[in-house]
Amino acid sequence: MDELELMLRLLAGLVAGVAVGWQRTLQHKSAGLRTFGLVGIGTAAAASLFSETLHPDAASRVVQGVLTGIGFLGAGLIIHRNGEMAPHGLTTAAAIWVTAALGCSAGLGKWLVTLTATGLALFLLALDHSLERRLQRRHAPPGEDGAGGPSPD
Q1: Where is each MgtC/SapB/SrpB/YhiD N-terminal domain found (predicted)?
Q2: Could you tell me the residue ranges of all domains in the chain?
Q3: pTM of the full predicted structure?
């Protein structure tokens, strides 16, 4: 891998992270553009370090470790507020995990995966909560409205 390829991989990880982070920033979530950008570029850097190593399992081990470890960052976003039993921050935590996967795919030079998965993630994050609420009401047990309070994110 030459220097230009490495820079493109890092840039792709950054762009994927910033794209997801921008959406979370617009939604006024606890993690935003900088956090997601750092996750994207950091995971791209980690994956690219071992993408062309002599040992065939090195890249897969790095990706496995990154995706497991990033769960701890996401877990810190899932909190209980005011004694409520419903967790908050699940979507943001999931988005951080997805951003780590996007960074890893960029770092490994998997351009189609990075581009397609970024687009799909943005599509899912753009879905309005009203769609979820309508589905919950439609499939709620008799006697319940399915509203259930605030959204889990």
Answers
A1: 10-133
A2: 1-14+31-41+61-131
A3: 0.80
